[in-house]
Amino acid sequence: MEDTQPNDPIAELITNYHELNSSIIDELDEEPSPLEFMRYVARNTPFVVRGGAADWQATRTWTVDYLKDFLGDELVNVAVTPAGNADAPTPYTSPDDGSTTLVLAKPHEEDQPFSTFLDYLTTPPTPTGAPPSTNKKETRYAQTQNDNLHHEYRALLTHVPATIPWARIALCRSPDAVNLWVGNGASVTALHRDSYENVYVQVAGRKHFVLVPPACQAGVAERALRSGVYVRAGDGGGGGDGDGDGEDREKGGEGLRLVLEEGVEPVPFATWDPDRPEVNATPYSRLVQPMRVTLEPGDMLYLPCLWYHKVSQSCSPEGVCIAVNYWYDMDFTGPLYPLSTFVRSVSNQRK
Amino acid sequence: MEDTQPNDPIAELITNYHELNSSIIDELDEEPSPLEFMRYVARNTPFVVRGGAADWQATRTWTVDYLKDFLGDELVNVAVTPAGNADAPTPYTSPDDGSTTLVLAKPHEEDQPFSTFLDYLTTPPTPTGAPPSTNKKETRYAQTQNDNLHHEYRALLTHVPATIPWARIALCRSPDAVNLWVGNGASVTALHRDSYENVYVQVAGRKHFVLVPPACQAGVAERALRSGVYVRAGDGGGGGDGDGDGEDREKGGEGLRLVLEEGVEPVPFATWDPDRPEVNATPYSRLVQPMRVTLEPGDMLYLPCLWYHKVSQSCSPEGVCIAVNYWYDMDFTGPLYPLSTFVRSVSNQRK
Ligand SMILES: O=C(O)CCC(=O)C(=O)O
Ligand SMILES: O=C(O)CCC(=O)C(=O)O
After folding, report:
1. For a substitution probing ligand 2, which of B181, B182, B202, B307 has the most ligand atoms within 8 Å of its CB?
2. Which residues form the JmjC domain (chains A, B) (predicted)?
């Protein structure tokens, strides 16, 4: 790992940013007014509202049994990976020459009855008393980010507000997407960023966010990654009977094979993991001071546009982790978007 | 003038900025709410409120005679220059070797009775019928930017609001400075920027603003300029009897001599003039699309922090140009300030 030079503008940017901004998240006791929220948007600075969604119907009523009663055998799209690594940089070993490269691994996707999916989530990986090595369980995560509360989960839509009033008023727009996330402690969402203002609401279990501001782009080691996709072994990708029963479970994580996608342009993706800061580091990574926050049920997080975020989860006593988030399109006018592209371009030229 | 390279991040930044942002200023018919204002602050985007200050006591009552009655012979600080170039990059010819360099010329400052100053401002430079070459008049501009409405001009303070309500509420702060500007068509304020959110209110006459966004920094040709100061010829700087009478006037613009200030660190200052775009241009200047707006009496301009601005003026029928502005300290948290320093550092390295 080379070191940074004196008068290196990129190092200076990261250092200046951290000198001027706290790495401890602001905690609000109640929801902000639209104006208070807009001040945070203007500063592109996250905050958490502790208990801001504590009285939502979702937060009060969504137990596993209640959800099963409600959605029953509706088919839902489930992301399946061997180790919880949906959309994550993952080593891929070429069957041709044995060489290993990082690829962006997309999950295997399949439709499953919602109650079967919940049963699978809440079954412990290793039967009590068995050695951990017998854990052959694959990881499943309902994480379609396509406004799924207006589609597959629309039966639950009225359990959450249609929009976040202070965000709608401040940003003058309705959410582009309202998404439900249902998983367990095995899933991790790798460090990435979105061009959305995000209001993320924890319903059951806990989420652990690691946040990196846009100014620290040069520390996250973006690389153009080819993309791969998991397929069930022994078939072209449609494998398993998809009902999540024992037959699938036996194949488990070992039944999934990562295959390269042909004809797909490599996409730039963060390869640095703030929880393993020595791996894939750039000379700038050590300057980055990630912000960490854990959301408890009923907490709301404002995650500003273009912030990198890594998200891991802990289960509720019932064994699930459930959240709902609202994506509001970011404002591409103003200086933030072009300046953030500029940071990326300058960083890429120094590689 | 070299050309920009393909994939030049700086060129891309300026082009992206302009593609995403209009170069025509937003015009509001009425003052914004704090939230509406905060949206502009978040986008770091100027707007003008036509007639927003039309009913201020200042706008309604400040005629030359009224001001004379009110302030009479109070001494006020006046910036004196040969050609209206207070705080402007100005060619300086060394008496030693005859070489010419640009220096940042500070005005000669002297105290004058307010009514004498107004008389001087409103006396035409050239007596009617005389050839223009007989114009030896110096330029005077009351432009102390030290919260002067709370000091020298405090007698006028109640004629304007103490703060701009929507700015105070949105920014959660009182103005750092409320400044009165009194000049005539001969003064021009050179392109520069301030770390303030600025609400600029035209009272009499017109001001012509040329605005350049912070993302275009590489086009304004900032150079570290030594500083100079005008002194009255024949003395060490305190010259003239300072009462603005005929004795001073005869010395006129020709009586002022620019001398280098010793022991003063050079400061980076924009040397590009959007009204003479070929002069002192950088390879990026031609990409810059300045925004232009003229303020009529009663108009208010929101000039966002870190925007470069050049300001020239036209007189009221009485021969003066009067404005009041409110400077609110900018928010140094968030990404704008460090990113704008970054743009400067990267641009400087490419010089
Ligand atoms: O909850 C997760 O696993 C990831 C959330 C996320 O990336 C987002 O809301 O943008
Ligand atoms: O009115 C002028 O001459 C200059 C105004 C200015 O530079 C400012 O308000 O920051």
Report:
1. B181
2. 149-343
